[in-house]
Amino acid sequence: MAALPLTDHHCHGVVRRDLDAAGFAGLLTEGARGSWESRLGFAVRDHCAPLLDLPAHAPPADYLDRRASLGHAEVTARLLAAAGLGALCVDTGYLPEPLLTPQELGAAAGAAAHEVVRLEQLAEQLLTSGVDAMGFASGVRENLADRAEAAVAAKSVAAYRVGLGLNPRRPTDSEVTAAAGLTLATIGRGGPARIADETLHRFLVWTAVDLGLPVQFHTGFGDPDLNLHQANPTLLTPLLRAIEPTGVPVLLLHTYPYHREAGYLTQVFDNVYFDIGLAVHNVGSRATAVLAEALELAPFPKLLYASDAFGLPEHYYLAATLFREALSAFLDEFTESDATRIAHLIGVDNATRVYRL
Ligand SMILES: [Zn+2]
Q1: What band does 90 get if pLDDT is binned at 50, 70 and 90?
Q2: The dihedral of CA 182, 185, 189, 190: what is its sign?
Q3: pTM of the predicted model, to two decimals?
Q4: Do residue 52 and residue 118 come from a single domain?
């Protein structure tokens, strides 16, 4: 298991600066509250401290001191290299500040790095570039086709904006023009350049499908601005049914606490895949149970590994380490040759096949 070069099919950049105590805590958990007094905080002290030449269970203050004296670049290099990754698919769409690029992450990890294009970000950039409503649909098609030359997938955050109960029908260009006009009018009145329109999210998804680009959907838990019940992946059922004949892969990200529902969808639809993302390092000793629940119905060729790492290289290392532990425990009941084959499917081969890496 330690030698398995995991493909991390959903992750983000890490910060390119040294962090003070508050900065580190804020990136360790959602919101800075009690971050060291959490499973994740203890996991950093247990698993990451030795990589920074400290004893396991080192106190937080010692950890932060050592981190500062090594500097962010060295810490990132050590933790990413130790994660044992073979390939990364990096979501470049969320940039609250400059983060390491896919190429820089790949170099630090000693892994191949690929980009995933955030659909809404591409559309929002177009909306602020002077495009008019009539030019929006063709502009999105052209820009996404350009980005698709280098990217391995597209990602939708419709779950955050309008929920996953999307109409399955491909919208017409006149419907897209009308919807883009409403959003442009909002921007014209000083509103944010933010896609939050069911027709536009659906249009973006279909544009990616028409290009043959695998589509990732945020599903399940996430940041505090998410209405969790609208992120249940079963809400996508009509759209999944409409996309299935195209054969374009659909990837349900995170999925927890709907990992059983997601597993069901991957059994029903040939082209649907999923991960349990950062649930593994958030649920601590329950990780093996969550993994087992995800795989109650899902065929083994349908689950992928994802860290959902963001901001800190610690997330990359912990996610990989804890996933290996959980998968290893799950595979205990199988023969050695079956366990080896399943570990390779979930850790490497499924992602390689789906994204044609
Ligand atoms: Zn993510």
Answers
A1: very high
A2: positive
A3: 0.96
A4: no
